[in-house]
Amino acid sequence: MIRVLFVDDHEMVRIGVSAYLSAQPDIDVVGEADNGRRGVELALSLRPDIILMDLVMKEMDGIEATRLIIEQWPEAKVIIVTSFLDDEKVYPALEAGATSYMLKTSKAGEIANAVRATYNGQSVLEPEVTGKMMLKMRQKTTHLPHEELTSRELEVLLLMAEGKTNQEIADELFIALKTVKTHVSNILSKLQVQDRTQAVIYAFKHSLVR
Questions:
Q1: C-alpha distances out from residue 29 to 79, 144, 159, 184, Å
Q2: What's CA 127's distance to the chain center, in Å?
Q3: Together in a domain, 176 and 117
Q4: Distance separating alpha carbons of residues 136 and 156, to the nearest angstrom
Q5: For 110-139, how does the pLDDT look when each residue is reduced to its tens digit (9 = 90+)?
Q6: Which residue, 35, 126, 199, 208, has fewest beta-carbon neighbours within 10 Å?
Q7: Radius of gyration of the chain (CA)
Q8: 66 and 150, same domain (yes or no)
Q9: Does residue 104 sit in the same domain as residue 198?
Q10: Where in this protein does the record say 4-aspartylphosphate is found (predicted)?
Q11: In the chain, how many domains are there?
Q12: Final residue in a domain of this structure, among 125, 140, 155
């Protein structure tokens, strides 16, 4: 039996989905919670195979609840079941550790199949979510190399462009020479260039310095 915990603040949703799942020969709903905080408590005490998690709830939302569960129990498998498809909900939920993402408009049978698939180690995403993730990946691949630089690395690059040596950069930024060398090495790696001269040329070419 696949042991399921259902966390949702809508009672009718819980009743309907739980009844359908419990009627399946291989699924057992072992607990229900109407808020994220209670959901975390039950998840850590019951240790179900699958946690169905709503996103917008009182006391604690599903994103924070998922994050807390995964932090304390990394093996937990959370399926988000929500009405929201906006980016500020989808990405944080997946980053918090959710394995699958379903919509409440899905048929009960589809949710049951998502439970089985997730239990077997698969990740189930709504087509709209998959599209958003692919778009996000494409956007990441179009980022320019210097966008990966930290604020400190950018400071070091600007001072390099001024012709300062590593020691002069260390003195101006009040950091160790060894730290400057590490920053320079990271800059060359992130900009995908071979030496300081090429890094400075890159900085001028992309208007990072005047």
A1: 14, 48, 61, 55
A2: 18
A3: no
A4: 30
A5: 999 999 999 999 999 887 776 666 666 555
A6: 208
A7: 24
A8: no
A9: no
A10: 54
A11: 2
A12: 140
